[in-house]
């Protein structure tokens, strides 16, 4: 099948981020972080829905219960898509400085949510990487400018992460049972590719797909960090990929129209969600946050 790039739906996001395919409902969730909106689209029917939030949102996660976990500016809430009800977890992050917020995050293979923070209006390594369990949050790493690219290897034993301004995609050895991490290693440096790294995901072969936000490309790297291919998109500012569709063989990719900071485009398709068909690669079903009591006693790493 030849490579084909479609546009999912007519809306355009200001700051599209964090697409997640829900295999249970065969629908795509994603966010417009700047507008504070969670969106859902079901490709088979064309049905859509959206939920307006009271503040900026950095990331979302699917939950075992069917709810969504929301990482807001400094706290976490659940969203019930059936009712639109928001309910707080009662867990907050204490940012290390003023003018900061949570940004990119992903669930590990054992039901914990790993999310990083970023500074606003300045470039300073005052952010951190956090891990959220059902009732508590802990700090995994510090000294971060802009957290992005969070995702996990298929077996859950590597955590991938990008501190965007450094151009580095890192990996940490990750213990799926305890959530403990090893020291950071640089896996990829994207300077030669003309862009900082943004969001990322892994495929079923363990390769890493990274959005190159400054040049409109999606890059695939092998597990040892070798560049395997690049796909050019019709807009410049692409942000985060995920795999979806009934066969998990479609890549959905969010983009930016106006980030409210440095990234702004007048291209008519800027801010669209793109659907990339024909890569010949399949993804993995999205891991779910453990919001049900029995989760950790029954799940084993995939």
Widest sheet, order of strands: 1-24-23-22
Q: What is the N-to-C order of secondary-structure elements (H for helix, E for strand)?
A: EEEEEEEEEEEEEEEEEEEEEEEEH
Helix content: under 10%
Q: What's the quaternary structure here?
A: single chain
Structural class, by secondary structure, is: mainly beta
Instruction: Tell me the strand percentage band.
Output: over 45%
Q: What does this protein look like?
A:
The structure is a single chain. This protein has 302 residues and is mainly beta. It has one domain (4-298): Neuraminidase (6 Propeller). 1% of the residues lie in helices and 48% in strands. The protein is built from one helix and 24 strands. The chain has one helix at residues 295-298, and strands at residues 4-7, 16-22, 27-32, 37-42, 47-52, 59-62, 68-71, 75-79, 86-92, 100-107, 113-119, 127-132, 137-144, 147-152, 158-163, 168-174, 181-189, 197-202, 208-212, 217-221, 227-232, 238-244, 250-255, 274-277. The chain has a four-stranded antiparallel β-sheet, with no helix packed on it. A four-stranded antiparallel β-sheet has the order 2-3-4-5, with no helix packed on it. The longest helix has 4 residues, at 295-298. The chain is globular, with a radius of gyration of 17 Å. It starts with a strand and ends with a helix. The relative contact order is 0.18. Residues 295-302 have low confidence and may be disordered.
């Amino acid at each position: 099948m030849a490579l084909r790039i479609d546009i999912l739906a007519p809306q355009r996001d200001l700051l599209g981020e964090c697409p997640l395919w829900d295999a249970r409902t065969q629908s795509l969730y994603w966010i417009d972080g700047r507008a504070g909106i969670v969106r859902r689209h079901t490709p088979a029917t064309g049905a859509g829905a959206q939920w307006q939030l009271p503040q900026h949102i950095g990331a979302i996660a699917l939950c075992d219960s069917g709810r969504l976990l929301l990482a807001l500016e400094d706290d976490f809430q659940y969203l019930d898509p059936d009712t639109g009800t928001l309910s707080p977890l009662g867990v907050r992050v204490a940012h290390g400085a003023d003018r900061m917020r949570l940004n990119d995050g992903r669930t590990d293979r054992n039901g914990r949510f790993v999310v990083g923070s970023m500074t606003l209006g300045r470039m300073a390594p005052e952010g951190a990487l956090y891990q959220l369990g059902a009732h508590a949050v802990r700090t995994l790493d510090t000294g971060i400018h802009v957290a992005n690219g969070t995702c996990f290897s298929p077996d859950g034993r590597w955590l991938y992460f990008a501190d965007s301004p450094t151009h580095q995609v890192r990996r940490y050895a990750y213990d799926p049972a305890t959530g403990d991490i090893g020291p950071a290693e640089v896996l990829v440096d994207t300077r030669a590719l003309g862009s900082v790294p943004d969001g990322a995901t892994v495929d079923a072969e363990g390769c890493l797909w990274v959005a190159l936000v400054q040049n409109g490309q999606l890059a695939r790297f092998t597990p040892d960090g070798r560049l395997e291919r690049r796909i050019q998109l019709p807009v410049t500012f692409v942000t985060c990929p995920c795999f979806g569709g009934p066969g998990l063989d479609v890549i959905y990719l969010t983009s930016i129209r106006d980030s409210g900071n440095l990234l702004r485009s007048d291209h008519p398709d800027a801010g669209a969600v793109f659907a990339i068909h024909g890569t010949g690669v399949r993804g993995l079903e999205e891991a779910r946050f453990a919001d049900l009591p029995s989760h950790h006693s029954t799940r084993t790493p995939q």
